[in-house]
């Protein structure tokens, strides 16, 4: 009897082993082993922009504004994906862009501090050259005792312009330094209105009249806003100045006044 049982078990095991391949490839098995598709965000479930992502957008034009989360958002081209380069003067930086502006994702430009033993291209010189080729400055980071690094990348489509850079382009155009790539970015901004909507930098932006009037009507909000530092104030002012539609601007001002009355910042 034991022999019969062992024989039956052996036959069953052999049958299962032989059919293993066909079972694994059966329609049922394939349906069970298929990877579930990842959920996609719809327009109604897409997360709202974080403070860091919006600050990165500001940073691409307002080079003087520090990052709120040290690119907590990674720059569009992070230090892991773009090279760190040093150029002795603006002519060598210009030669690099002349050959690479179309293909390079960007660079971290190593720039000497005032006390550095060996000078490099300066930040202002580097920005002038970048604008000529349709590039723009971004995040600045510490590097060593002699240098800091400044990110430069091609200007993103539909990116905003600062009044500082509008003025720089005017001077570069007068000096006949603009290249076709840089002029194309200027033409595109003029065509879609971004040129006329250029915003002020943190050092020059003033409180708009409609926002000032709304603050005067709320004493608590007004006192708290006056106590903010320049960077905190600019976070409010930039959002107001870059809002295009009047109804959206009014709604945003009302929201900001309520926020300030609760002693909160953006």
Helix and strand arrangement:
Blueprint: H1 2-18, H2 20-24, H3 27-33, H4 51-59, E1 84-86, H5 90-100, E2 107-112, H6 123-132, E3 135-142, E4 147-154, H7 163-174, H8 180-192, H9 209-216, H10 219-227, H11 230-241, H12 246-261
Parallel strand pairs: 1-2
Antiparallel strand pairs: 2-4, 3-4
Helix pairs in contact: 5-6, 9-12, 10-12, 11-12
Q: Can you describe this structure in just a few lines?
A:
By secondary structure, this protein is an alpha+beta fold. 48% of the residues lie in helices and 9% in strands.
Count of the separate structural domains: 2
Spans where pLDDT lies below 50 across 5 or more residues: 16-79
The total of helices stands at 12
Question: Numbering strands along the chain, what is their spatial order in the largest sheet?
Answer: 1-2-4-3
Mean pLDDT: 79
Please trace the helix and strand order, writing H or E for each element: HHHHEHEHEEHHHHHH
Protein name: Bacteriocin-protection protein
Organism: Colletotrichum lupini
Biased composition (Polar residues): 31-47
Region (Disordered): 30-49
Describe this structure in words.
By secondary structure, the protein is α+β, with helices and mostly antiparallel strands. It folds into two domains: 51-192, no CATH class; 209-261, no CATH class. The protein has twelve helices and four strands, in the order H-H-H-H-E-H-E-H-E-E-H-H-H-H-H-H. The protein has helices at 2-18, 20-24, 27-33, 51-59, 90-100, 123-132, 163-174, 180-192, 209-216, 219-227, 230-241, 246-261; strands spanning 84-86, 107-112, 135-142, 147-154. A four-stranded mixed β-sheet has the order 1-2-4-3, with helices on one face. A hairpin with a 4-residue loop joins strand 3 (135-142) and strand 4. Helix 10 crosses helix 12 and helix 11 (230-241) packs antiparallel against helix 12 (246-261). It is globular, with a radius of gyration of 29 Å. 24% of the residues are buried. Residues 16-79 have low confidence and may be disordered. It comes from Colletotrichum lupini. This is Bacteriocin-protection protein.
């Amino acid at each position: 009897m034991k022999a019969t049982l062992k024989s039956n078990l052996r036959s069953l095991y052999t049958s299962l082993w032989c059919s293993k391949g066909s079972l694994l490839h059966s329609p049922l098995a394939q349906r069970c082993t298929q990877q579930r598709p990842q959920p996609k965000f719809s327009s109604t479930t897409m997360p709202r922009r974080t403070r860091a992502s919006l600050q990165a957008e500001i940073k691409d034009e307002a080079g003087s504004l520090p990052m709120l989360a040290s690119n907590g958002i990674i720059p569009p081209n992070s230090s892991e994906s773009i090279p760190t380069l040093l150029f002795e003067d603006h002519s060598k930086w210009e030669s690099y862009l002349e050959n690479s502006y179309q293909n390079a994702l960007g660079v971290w430009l190593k720039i000497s501090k005032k006390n550095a033993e060996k000078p490099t291209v300066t930040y202002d010189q580097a920005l002038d050259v970048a604008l000529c080729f349709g590039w723009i400055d971004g995040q600045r980071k510490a590097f060593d005792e002699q240098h800091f690094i400044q990110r430069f990348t091609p200007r993103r489509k539909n990116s905003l312009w600062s009044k500082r850079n509008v003025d720089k382009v005017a001077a570069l155009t007068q000096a006949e330094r603009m290249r076709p790539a840089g002029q194309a970015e200027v033409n595109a901004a003029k065509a879609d209105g971004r040129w006329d909507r250029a915003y002020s930098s943190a050092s020059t932006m003033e409180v708009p009249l409609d926002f000032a009037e709304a603050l005067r009507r709320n004493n608590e909000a007004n006192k708290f806003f006056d106590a903010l530092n320049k960077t905190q104030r600019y976070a409010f002012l930039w959002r107001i100045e870059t809002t295009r539609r009047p109804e959206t601007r009014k709604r945003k001002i009302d929201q900001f006044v309520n926020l300030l009355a609760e002693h909160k910042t953006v």
